[in-house]
Amino acid sequence: MALTSEKVTIPVEKLKWMYETMVKSRYFEDTMVEAYNEGKQPVFNIGAGPVPGEMHLSTGQEPAAVGICAHLQKEDTVTSPHRPHHHAIAKGVDLKRMTAEMFGKVTGLGKGKGGHMHLFDPDVKFSCGGIIAAGIPHAVGAALAAKKKGKDWVAVTFVGEGAANAGGFHESLNLAAVWKLPLIVVVEDNAYGISVSKRDSTAVESNDKRAAAYGIAGAYVANNDPLEMYRVSEEAVKRARSGAGPTIIEIETHRHLGHFQGDPELYRDMEEVPGLRKLDPIMKLRELMIVEGIATEEEIESLETTAKKEVDEAYAFARESEYPKPEEALEDVFSK
Amino acid sequence: MEAVKKRMLTGNKAMAEAIDLEMERDPNVFVLGEDVGKYGGIFGSTQGLFEKFGGDRVMDTPISETAFIGAAIGAAAEGLRPITELMFVDFFGVCMDQIYNHMAKIQYMSGGNVKLPMVLMTAVGGGYNDAAQHSQTLYATFAHLPGMKVVAPSTPHDLKGMMISAIRDDNPVVFMFHKTLQGLGWMDQLDASVSHVPEEAYTVPLDKANVVREGRDVTIVGLQMTMHYALEAAEKLAREGIEAEVIDLRSLAPIDKETILESVRKTHRLIVADEDYLSYGVTAEISAIVAEEALYDLEAPVKRIAIPDVPIPYSRPLEQFVLPNADKIYREAIKLVNEE
């Protein structure tokens, strides 16, 4: 399904930013696949190579991140789960320090203590974590703080569709609704919680329908469509900033890779991923921008070059940086 | 005599075989948890069971630990024998109320009138750079709370025998298995993750430590990875003429005091190595037991090797710095034995 042209009421600069950011995010993940595989050949060992540990990549899920982050400012909060790179990039997290963190370097966002699931960039109010649904109440707290401070800041929390079945989802949504907080929950439905399909785990067809249970707004975005995500998010952010309370947005999105790198993916059909790749939202947006005369081939290539250069520089920075000294493991437990 | 080829299994296959045998034996046994079905458990603990027994007895759950661990409690109270999996022990935070206010206390609060014959199995341990929320063992956190048996087998042989015991036990058993000792193809390949496992069903007690190496000079108590590190250190110490006795703790609650005390009365020196946090942990408990009951048998102060009180860091040099290893045990043992 192509992206429809009638939806292109988005300012050209925003559209270009969304495209460039999706390209940056995708290229970041593609580069990470290679970096992660270093030292893990011919025998895969999760603890080997320059980027060890679990690695959850967001390839295919870029529309969710850019569609809403296009409406956010630096002061707005974003919390994210174990699959955080596309959100971090769209929120403007320092790419060099984020990459360095994944390489376990002292120049990383957490001086090498956190790793890819635990990125914290307070400068742009971004955080993520490895426990399902745990970021939702943190966003509730950020939204509460905005309200207490009298600011029109909003808090956006990204979760997978599996997180909607965790207790924290329900508790947080009810609280945010009762307190009418500027919270937006973006549920990325990539169809699987690791191996368990949404069909087998979730009683409702889409999680935006749960909004009714909290008396708040809900919206659904089909087909991994970044333009529709932009449109729906615009309303949700407006609603939040104006004090009209929370929104749940569910977006149908696609996980092109395994739950983690090294996932044998025996729970899904071999044909599924090639099929998903044909629906690539980046390819579709590129085509649309050219067909609609929004950008020329040359302009698009220039956006792509800029995005990739930034990623290459971030990886170079990460690789060239030093490891922390072993005894630095004992620092930062408490603030001084 | 004809040589008998030993039947070797990885840790995960030994566990899955135990569950398989008990499911065949007892229709009340069933499994529920995240990715225990088609995936076979993220750490392979239920490999092949879904194919054999189907989704009614090997149940994939939503990411709803409070609900499915609580449901296991409810089903156990009805006389079923559920085995439920908490994927990573680190995830206990979202469901600890069910575990310790209910699973651990209902038998007691009911004056023994309600039994909960269930197993809560969970993956523990670090060493592969999975960072602070996926690398803990939390042995002591669980062992601290009365009302649950807590075991941590270190070999495929014991994983099978203790799992069978756990399933047949009428009490809730927290069954902690170490990821690195599962023998999974995508993790470090350790010799320790493969051992001889008899084909038939057999039990290993849930309350007995195991002297895995006899020695006269120093006792080293460990469990799971630290037990294997202790054995490695003992080999090196033997080359220096120091004979270490290595005890595989196996069971955290109840703890087998006698085996530890007997060993310390023989060697007069004790090192406890633990992949959990130092303070208020396994090393503290065992030190206290020895201080209370065998203080005057000691010729030197007890040495503790555990994770200094920091969360597990991600970066390799940082993680390796905080984790115990064979070399740290070896160095402490040398110092301890040479201390006057």
Automatic annotation (TrEMBL), chain A:
Example GO BP: pyruvate decarboxylation to acetyl-CoA
The protein's required cofactors: thiamine diphosphate
Superkingdom of source: Bacteria
InterPro entries given in the database record: DH_E1 (IPR001017), PDH_E1_Alpha_Subunit (IPR050642), THDP-binding (IPR029061)
Matches recorded under CDD domains: TPP_E1_PDC_ADC_BCADC
Oxidoreductase among keywords: yes
Residues in Dehydrogenase E1 component domain copies: 53-327
GO molecular function: pyruvate dehydrogenase (acetyl-transferring) activity
Keyword Oxidoreductase: yes
Keywords, ordered alphabetically: Oxidoreductase, Thiamine pyrophosphate
PANTHER family given in the database record: PYRUVATE DEHYDROGENASE E1 COMPONENT SUBUNIT ALPHA, PYRUVATE DEHYDROGENASE E1 COMPONENT, ALPHA SUBUNIT BACTERIAL AND ORGANELLAR
Protein name listed in UniProt: Thiamine pyrophosphate-dependent dehydrogenase E1 component subunit alpha
Species name: Peribacillus glennii
UniProtKB/TrEMBL annotation, chain B:
Record key words, sorted: Oxidoreductase, Thiamine pyrophosphate
InterPro entries for the chain: THDP-binding, Transketo_C/PFOR_II, Transketolase-like_Pyr-bd, Transketolase_C
CDD domains: TPP_PYR_E1-PDHc-beta_like
Keyword field contains Oxidoreductase: yes
A GO MF label: oxidoreductase activity
All copies of domain Transketolase-like pyrimidine-binding, residue ranges: 9-184
Pfam short name (any one): Transketolase_C
UniProt cofactor(s): thiamine diphosphate
Name the UniProt record assigns to this protein: Alpha-ketoacid dehydrogenase subunit beta
